[in-house]
Amino acid sequence: MFKKIVFIVVGFFIIDFALAQGGGFPVAPSAVGAPIDGGLSLLLAAGAAYGAKKVYDFRNKDNQDEENEMK
Q1: Under DSSP, is residue 51 helix (H, G, I), strand (E, B) or coil?
Q2: pLDDT (0 to 100) of residue 14
Q3: Which letter, b or e, does each residue of 17-29 get, where b requires 16 or more Cβ atoms within 10 Å of its Cβ?
Q4: Per-residue DSSP letter, 28
Q5: Angle at 66 between CA 53 and CA 50, to 5 degrees
């Protein structure tokens, strides 16, 4: 009886390893990932321009407020 149980347990382990999924096909080196350089640099440039405009408007508003107080 013990030999049958050991045989069944070992058989399940062997079948488990035999039916395990193998590795897939190798990926071609040209298919690495999505190119984000063009869009990312455009987004950063637009953000910098928007930030510069906000700073310019804020400084311009302060100058106008000081001129209005002097009058």
Answers
A1: helix
A2: 82
A3: eeeeeeeeeeeee
A4: P
A5: 5
3-state secondary structure of 6: helix
User: Which is more confidently placed, 51 or 35?
Assistant: 51
Distance (Å, rounded) from C-alpha 58 to C-alpha 56? Answer: 5
N- to C-terminal Cα separation, the chain? 108
> Percent helix, strand and coil across the chain, each rounded to 5?
70, 0, 30
CA-to-CA dists, residue 66 to 13, 38, 44, 55, 59, angstroms: 83, 43, 33, 17, 11
Closest-CA residue to 47 (of 14, 17, 55): 55
Q: What is the pTM of this model?
A: 0.43
Between 45 and 15, name the one with better pLDDT.
Answer: 45
CA distance 61 to 70: 15
